[in-house]
Amino acid sequence: MSVDKQSSEDILNEKWDFCISNLLVKTGIGLSVGIVASALIFKRKSWPIALSTGFGIGVSYAECQKTFNPTAIPGVKIIKNSSSTSG
């Protein structure tokens, strides 16, 4: 029976890959929304672009923080498995 275990380095690489791709996607969506809002609603001001891009970066940062440290999520309690050997 062969169990394919990942090393801690592989797990960390997957988390970083997820965070970087998430950053690019969320920043791109925020930038796009800012450009559209700037052109259609705010008479071509630049602040909606910066604001929505910042929101995208902030959401991405929060999701990365949850990925690397799941105990930092408010309301989540980690319960340790108490395996006692009774004989």
From TrEMBL:
Keyword Heme in record: no
Cited InterPro entries: Mic10 (IPR007512)
TM helices/strands, residue ranges: 20-42
Domain of life where this protein originates: Eukaryota
Cellular localization per UniProt: Mitochondrion inner membrane
Cellular component per GO, a single term: MICOS complex
Key words, A-Z: Membrane, Mitochondrion, Mitochondrion inner membrane, Transmembrane, Transmembrane helix
Protein's UniProt keywords contain Transmembrane: yes
Membrane-topology descriptor: Single-pass membrane protein
Family membership noted in the UniProt record: Belongs to the MICOS complex subunit Mic10 family.
SUBUNIT field: Component of the mitochondrial contact site and cristae organizing system (MICOS) complex.
Known role: Component of the MICOS complex, a large protein complex of the mitochondrial inner membrane that plays crucial roles in the maintenance of crista junctions, inner membrane architecture, and formation of contact sites to the outer membrane.
Name listed for the protein in its UniProt record: MICOS complex subunit MIC10
Source organism per UniProt: Gigaspora margarita
Lineage: Eukaryota, Fungi, Fungi incertae sedis, Mucoromycota, Glomeromycotina
